## 1
Amino acid sequence: MTYRLPSLNTLRAFEAAARHLSFKTAASELGVTAGAVSQQVKKLENSLGVALFRRLPHGLLLTREGETYLPSITKVFEDLTDATEAIAPRINSKKFRVGICSQVKAMLPENWPNHSENLRNHVRDWVETRDVEKLRTDEIDCLIRPGGGPYAELALVIIPGTGSAEAWHFVCKPGLADCSQSKAILQDLMRIRSEDPGSVHAVRLSPGN
């Protein structure tokens, strides 16, 4: 059977842009420019003969066709990920490689992240570093360090310290700030910082702050 389908790159661009309703945030996730994402989406729309987005001055809205298309395309990428991991489990593409500076690592449980069954589902491994550039080159998916910055286009979530303890910075690409992996890591870090997780709230800052 011959499959007449759009290119994978156009589908990836659409799926990311539709999740974030932003070409810029999708571009950060995919490691390309916003213009490249916009061009790929336009190429997809031309090949399908339908508009998938309404382009507004302050963002994007999915058309009815886009809303119908998105769940199926997301499911396709999830199935591709599962199929790939089934034969190449070392890829672990759903799990994060976390960068942790030595100062923070000393304050975490000795067997972090393996101390938590939930966290093992979201973290592949960790490396000791405080180098933000490793995020931009995709060597790590997020970075945990005490203070620092500025982080330019990267997303920053501040986990306040308790008492005299210094706040921690959780830094990642904007497209990853709200994913399940980031949420699981942040929840665990907040629990570690306080016996009452509700007393320590992450402060989310937009890119560039």
## 2
Amino acid sequence: MFQTLVKAFKIKEVRRKIFITLALLLVYRIGCYIPVPGIGTGLLTDENLESFTYLQIMSAVSGGALQYGTLFAMGIGPYINASIIIQLLTVGIPALERLSKQGEEGRKKIATITRYVTVLLAIAQSIGIIIGFSGNIEWNNLFGENLKWLGYIALVIIYTAGASLTMWLGERITDYGVSNGISMLIFIGIICTLGNSVIGIFTGEAPQAAWTIVVFLVATVLIFAAVVTVNDAERKIPVQYAKQVKGRRMYGGQSTHIPIKVNSSGVMPLIFAFAILSFPDLIINLVGVSSDNWYSRNMGTGSWLNIVVMCLLILFFAYFYNAIQFKPEDISRSIQQNGGFIPGTRPGKPTTDYLKRVSNRIVLFGAIYLAIVALVPTIVFRAIDASLQMAFSATGLLIIVSVALEFNQALESQIMMKNYKGFLK
């Protein structure tokens, strides 16, 4: 990673893209500190964040901007949700499926639809949070108590504009910077939340802080090593292509492989599982229902029923995403059309069945891995220090690792492209 950064800074074009990325990330972080009229000490209190897992995730991703109700309080959350919704609808709606297969033009149209859905979700999300936590809003600083409805409209417009600007910054990083801009915004938000938690450890009592830091560093290294190892693990299925004579030349005859990653779906099953389990609790509390209800008692964070249901949801969404991304029939057809075969397996339906069987087994191990990652880090860091529970959650760990690896691969590809251009010149 460090060697890649050193090589990247030696190349003018890549160095310029890195500086553009850093500048846009700086603009995003500045927006996370711009106050909004009517929001005094903060939009959400510590008690609210401790009660709602969904708000904890949103606050962690936004780098704490949601807690203080600043301009970018919504962060990139509406865009992520919109992307997930469009991706799921692409499977069920034929029109969207046709657009996804139309190449660059189709992707542009889907991106435009995603932007519109992002704005709608930002409006709905800002309305829900403002109504649910209106007790922390200083209405007299806006338009007065008599025109509270006008204050609602103003705050919704401000937060929707902030979410739209965040989406624009992410797209600009993707176009002119390095790596995926949306991932980088999520990454920097979680890193900032983590930094605040680590600073909290150093400002604690000296005897407690000393052993806490040591245990924290050891646990961090071990967990990150385990996450990186499994995140890069893959099963390579060998493919042999037969020799073909065309005219006076001979083609084929080479060996290759089909890589199937253990964690091909990434963090998506975790996000879906957390969102589904946390969203009912959020709605219950927003509408004013007492916290002493059946769902909070039996399905609250840390309960055994919550753990079991979350593991089942992770397993379900892991298989669901694998069914969307991995198409054994298409792969088998492509191998057969190009004169290839898997050693020991006949072309056609036997190859399809073999790929399905291998894929299902790997997805099972990937789902078990995600379930372990969802539970172990949270429990470990909660035992070390309660303030680290959300900063080093399962979702945060996977996002940090995935984005760091993605950024390193993007830099390596930029360096390789520059070397190819220099060779051609």
## 3
Amino acid sequence: MPPRSKIRTFPEDVRRELDARLIAGGFGGYAALAEWLRSRGFEIGASSVKRYGADLEQRIERIRLATEQAEALVEAAGETGALADASMRLIQEKMWDVLAASDEKDVKALSAAARALADTARASVAIRQERRKVLGEAAEAAGTEARRLGISPDFEAAIRRAVQGGA
């Protein structure tokens, strides 16, 4: 695994300013950014700034893609429970990416990623439980209405199975 970026050891305010300058400059002008950092007392070369900038640009691109995927999920799934399931799967996939890409020495980041993954798993289970509950209630209501209309018990059972089939 390559050594950790020197820029990641800089104070947060310096990194944020560098990030803003990288974005504003279209991820170019690395020599000028290295000079700016040197003027602030940080010894670093343009190639290090370029590597950091490329990593930042990739992270921003992954966030953009994830956002587009989420928007596509919303559009495709409408108001169904499929949206929640798909969103949870997308989040879990991204968290696995974070875990895989993280520095194994950064225990705090690994712990946060693992905790977020566990939280999404719990949320996914809760969503499925709620869906089963709602579908069960819908099946009961459909069965009650079927009995009221005098439909045969076999047909009533078929209606219940059809309603609960989405669970």
## 4
Amino acid sequence: MFALTLQIGRKVIRVNTNDWNMKLIKCFFILVLLITCTASYSQSTNIRTQHKVEKNESVFGIAKKYGVTLEELIDANPKMKQPGYELNRGTMLSIPYGKNQTPPSSSKDNTAKPATTQVTGKKEVKVGVMLPLHDNDGDGRRMVEYYRGLLLGADRVKKDGITIEMNAWNVPIDADINTTLAEKEAAQCDIIIGPLYTKMVKPLAQFCAKNDIMMVIPFSISGNDVEEYSNIYQVYQSPADFDTQTVKNFIQWFNNYHVVIIDCEDEKSTKGEFTKKLRAELDNYAIKYSLTSLKTPEKSFAKAFSLSQQNVVIINTEHSPSLNTTFQKLNTLTEKNADIHVSVFGYKEWLMYTKVYMDLFFKYDAYIPTYFYYNNLSADTKWVEHNYKEKYKKDMDVDALPRFALTGFDHACFFIGGFSQFGKKFNGGKGQMTYKPVQSPLKFRPAGKGHKNTNFMFVHYKNDRTIESVNY
């Protein structure tokens, strides 16, 4: 009797055996090893080739070049999932085989093959824009900037071999949109972007349904027409929907924090409704929290905070005067109580104040819920801004947040690029995220018959003075 020990992968197998069946056992383990090696080989051959990133290449363009989805490309390159990842010239990317592509069957033919994409989309996309495109008021000027961003995005998509026919109609607030819809080019569109005004949604939705056209509503509207028409893709998120998402994700992210809600007594703010919803959900999950006020004396104010847990502070206003007072009280609190550690949880309106409060955001580990993020330091942002100025001889509106031109650029790349790849099967949801956004991410889910954008993120200002976006 003796022992035979073999290692297969991470597993060590030890067998006691007699001489007479030794050959049989050896044959068994050789068979197991062959099966294991075959499985390992199959996994390794999922990577087709390596790609060196060239100047001005995008993640979307690379995925499209090799006939894979963005999700497949990212899975093959885990570093791309890290917060703040940027694609740089010279980076080496692993290119996987897509779900419609076949890896080589043996090591005899392991050389990279040219991309053999099964095209389900369209190489030619016709786009209609029905927005107020004029210089008569703020609506018109903002939509002109948005439209210019759309054109820049369309130019970017064309670099991936897509032909785009763009028709634009000026549809001001007092226009009869049916007049525009009577134009023969309207019925030939694959995508129509518009309208800006709620009263025009239903007639445009009926027209798009009749002619099987994707209808993209880019900005604020009221009503629930999206639930009645399958062709509608509603980018805008209502404050109520966004608050619901914020509360849900707050509970998930901060369930191990001690929550401190500070009353600012700001009668002009509506954020009290948000903190009311948040308190109800905290109670529902039996998560303890403290209530205090900006007018509370220093010693009593300190008692609202935990010494053993990380605290997260929420105030019931988005306005900067109360935010100033809050930071003053937190500075005094943390200077006198070294054991108290604080994060602050804000509102997307705070992104307007980043130049003023950046240092304090970093100091207090600020989390800001939002559906967009304007990063002026991003290479992609700089590229779009530079090209906008070069083409239109002016800067974007710096007072607008989000930037309208960047929003237009993202919408063009997302919808035109997605439609060109997936055609009528494009739904803007998981598995079809073919574009890395510059400012305004999009993610659609069914809403009745139509589709609503449900993109959500936390912009996190970390203590080490780096910024990450936590996407949901």
